[in-house]
Design goal:
With about 475 residues, this protein is of the alpha/beta class. The protein has one domain: TIM Barrel. Helix content is about 40%, strand content about 15%. It is built from 15 helices and 13 strands. It has an eight-stranded parallel barrel, surrounded by five helices. A three-stranded mixed β-sheet has the order 6-8-9, covered by helices on one side. Strands 12-13 form a two-stranded antiparallel sheet. A hairpin with a 4-residue loop joins strand 12 and strand 13. Helix 8 runs antiparallel to helix 9. The chain starts with about 25 loop residues before the first strand and ends with a helix. The chain binds beta-D-fucopyranose. Beta-D-fucopyranose binds near residues 34, 37 and 440.
């Protein structure tokens, strides 16, 4: 198989659902979504545009020019979707609030009609015995705040804290699980450095300012929520993480792995947990004439105590410090950091399937940061084929989930404190720059009719949860 070949995991048939003993006690099972990817109703009830509404209109930004105007129309199909979630037998549902629905324009008072939607959702979950696991920011910055400078501007961190307070005042009486940010690496790097996500800027220095202001926004919001909380509060942040290893023992490869780990993992977790930016990364940035815009008191705010670290895991990478031609400096004049394929099967996203990387990642996070963790996203896109009645025999997705759940179990057996798992995703949905072509759902969405059909992986997940719980 060539390194770029797409193929399903090597599974003749899907593994039958079975109990996973290491996950039987004190473990929370869930499914996850995010606002822009499923809600639709882009201009309903006072919602204003986010950077994703704007970005989707940029020619070439999203495959086939697709956008989230309608998405899964979850905003109007909430009751049906609540029934689907309950049918999967999960304990928790992870979703995000649309900032411009809650606070149109990103400033001023809360929008009662936007809040009413989340009231319905939260109340519906609680009525069904499902714990709402709320994320404040899953990438949909109000466009007006981008026009005022976006995340590279310090004021956005303050706006975020204010929005967090509005949201908490509206929902904090019923929601106890609060995640500030989803994957700030993606917001900063994909949005401001690489330009492949909204707002589509390509400025590395701006991206590093965005990193600091995202983390500051997290810290300020966390402080507000702690101050406001009168009852139990489980507060966290979700990061996208993977295991990053040197491709060989050569010094250049070890250096490349250090750089990748620095910019991908330690740049976030060191300030969040240890209250300081990693010195080697700060030095690497200085060599590029980039300084993080840190002011007095920022790191104290950023390192406010966390109850839980959300880990989103899809794949792992190994790095080489040389180009294929053996050069150690790239065309951009920077040291080479090149991901080298393992030669594993890949998902439809072209992401290699590396389940043992999840075990090693969780053990490393436990060792270096010591926080309780929850897998807030894990799952896979495959090129599903729907039968006439909508059924999807997605053995490849079942194989992926099975291998990764077992990887979590192995990490627990090794001492890592991981006490929950959310499958990404509940529904097929708008996969950002990939549009609707990449399907991650446990539940199929027919975008012509908005019909939902539980895939084989959804049935498998429900049975795995049931058997593992043993009740
Ligand atoms: C993560 C995002 C999520 C989804 C998955 C596939 O990076 O948090 O919204 O797109 O990837």
């Amino acid at each position: 198989m060539t390194a770029t070949a797409k193929s399903s995991p090597d599974l003749a048939a899907a593994p039958a659902p079975a109990a996973i003993p290491e996950l039987s006690a004190d473990f929370r099972w869930g499914v996850a979504t995010s606002a822009y990817q499923i809600e639709g109703a882009a201009d309903a009830d006072g919602r204003t545009p986010s950077i994703w509404d704007t970005f989707c209109r940029v020619p070439g930004a999203v495959v086939r020019g697709e956008n989230g105007d309608v998405a899964c129309d979850h905003y109007h199909r909430t009751a049906e979707d609540l029934a689907v979630i309950a049918g999967l037998g999960v304990d928790c549902y992870r979703f995000s609030l649309s900032w411009p629905r809650v606070q149109p324009g990103g400033r001023g008072p809360a929008n009662p009609r936007g809040i009413a939607f989340y009231d319905r959702l939260v109340d519906g979950l609680l009525e069904r015995g499902i714990t709402p696991w709320l994320t404040l920011y899953h990438w949909d910055l109000p466009q007006e705040l981008e026009d005022a400078g976006g995340w590279p501007a310090r004021d956005t961190a303050h706006r975020f804290a204010e929005y967090a307070e509005l949201a908490y005042r509206a929902l904090g009486d019923r929601v106890t699980h609060w995640t500030t940010l989803n994957e700030p690496w993606c917001s900063a790097m994909l949005g401001y450095a690489e330009g492949v996500h909204a707002p589509g800027r390509r400025d590395f220095g701006a991206a590093m300012s965005a990193v600091h202001h995202l983390l500051l926004g997290h810290g300020l919001a966390a402080g507000r929520l702690r101050d406001l909380a009168r009852g139990p509060l489980e507060l966290g942040i979700t990061l996208n993480l993977g295991r990053g290893t040197p491709a060989t023992d050569a010094p250049a490869d070890r250096e490349a792995a250090r750089r990748a780990d620095g910019l991908g993992t330690r740049l976030y977790l060191d300030p969040l947990v240890h209250g300081r930016y990693p010195e080697d990364v700060v030095a690497d940035l200085a060599a590029r004439d980039v300084t993080l815009p840190v002011r007095d008191g920022d790191l104290a705010a950023i390192s406010a105590p966390l109850d839980v670290l959300g880990v989103n895991y899809y794949s792992s990478h190994q790095f080489s410090g040389t180009t294929e031609d053996g050069a150690t400096t790239g065309e951009d004049g920077l040291p080479v950091v090149r991901a080298v394929p393992f030669g594993r099967p890949r998902t439809a996203m072209d992401w290699e399937i590396v389940p043992e990387g999840l075990t090693e990642l969780l053990l490393r996070l436990h060792r270096d940061y010591g926080l309780p963790m929850v897998i807030t996203e894990n799952g896979a896109a495959f090129d599903d084929v729907a039968e006439e009645d909508g059924a999807v025999r997605d053995v490849d997705r079942i194989g992926y989930l099975d291998q990764h759940l077992r990887a979590v179990a192995a990490a627990r057996a090794g001492g890592a404190r991981v006490d929950g798992y959310f499958a990404w995703s509940l529904l097929d949905n708008f996969e950002w720059a990939e549009g609707y072509g990449k399907r991650f759902g446990l539940v199929r969405v027919d975008y012509d009719t908005q019909r939902r059909t539980v895939k084989d992986s959804g049935h498998w997940y429900r049975e795995t949860v049931r058997l593992t719980r043993g009740r």
